[in-house]
Specification:
- By secondary structure, the chain is an alpha/beta fold.
- 25% of the residues lie in helices and 20% in strands.
- It has eight helices and 18 strands.
- The strands form four sheets. Strands 1, 2, 3, 4, 5, 16, 17 and 18 form an eight-stranded mixed beta sheet that branches. It has a five-stranded parallel beta sheet with strand order 6-15-7-8-11, covered by helices on one side. Strands 12-13-14 form a three-stranded antiparallel beta sheet, with no helix packed on it.
- A hairpin with a 2-residue loop joins strand 4 (132-136) and strand 5.
- It comes from Streptomyces caniferus.
- InterPro entries: Auxin_biosynth/cation_transpt, FAD/NAD-bd_sf.
Length: 386
Amino acid sequence: MNYTGVREVEVVVVGAGQAGLAAAFHLRRVGFEPDRDFVVLDHSPRPGGAWQFRWPTLTFEKVHGMHALPGMELTGADPLRPSSEVIGAYFERYERTFGLRVHRPVNVMAVREGGGPPPWTDPAGTLGRGRLLVATSEGDYAARALINATGTWDRPFWPRFPGQEMFGGRQLHSSEYRGPEDFRGARIVVVGGGTSAVQQLMEIAPVAAATTWVTRRPPVFREGPFDAERGRAAVALVEERVRQGLPPRSVVSVTGLQMTEAVRRAREGGVLERLPLFARLTPTGVSWDDGRTVEADVILYATGFRAAVDHLAPLHLREPGGGIQMDGTRTLRDPRVHLVGYGPSASTIGANRAGRAAVGDIRRLIAATTSRPVDAATELAGSLAS
């Protein structure tokens, strides 16, 4: 049955980055048809997920740990080409090859329980029995399940410091970084201990008048490859926080910074000499409680991101600790809602696995509430797909 202004589907996938495309692949693989049984909604202007917004000087050779999407390897990429172009073209080819029919640009404003407050209208009360209502810029959807793959790019985290409004120079977040030329001849303070902080600092240092790196905790550099054992250990640490209903920590906080040859040279050259976090900003720079000061023209906050899940607020999924408690990819407060690319699946390989797991769980949920069967052969095929 169709309702005025509401289109019914089995599953809505929000986001077409790595996690969203992986989920869409597995939905299609087990028999769901795009634009009939499920829709993929993406608010970005073109394919590529968050990668399309990366700074132009982040070439593909500088990208660490980019795991291929299921069913199609990324081959023949020019290592000197910007990663935004390489991965954007790869995602576009992937969408076209598997006919995923991503709707873009589409903004998802809110996800609510069926039969909730306006603008929802459901005179018969049917939607209130098991449907989620997804309000979007292209119209409203009623879905039996939702796979949220919105990542973090849209929620850059800006720390707050005393005196921040008095600083006379420029302040920007690493998400706004476009390359080192914007900082030529300037004195730069880079705030943050993650991979973006290190990469951007190393690019800026050769053209800047001076650079200062500050972090909340001493950085930990990881020697050797990030093998399967290390990966499992890192995922386990993040999973434990999510299981407790706490906000997930950043990836680098549990994996450490990869020690590449470029990083080694930067450390030997003094570029990566780290200072503890300053106490305040001044009109001309930053200062510490011990009296130390550094003059600066620019403060670059490479301070990470938070999960972009505000549109899920009407479902009240958050725990008192501020996070969303989950069992695998399924939120404990609402088994119809799955988060992929969140917490332990916030990596390219983790996103693939999470997409597959979410689809398997959703198929069982739908089979339990409708007459749609779960075929054993396609269930096995989906479980074997990487």
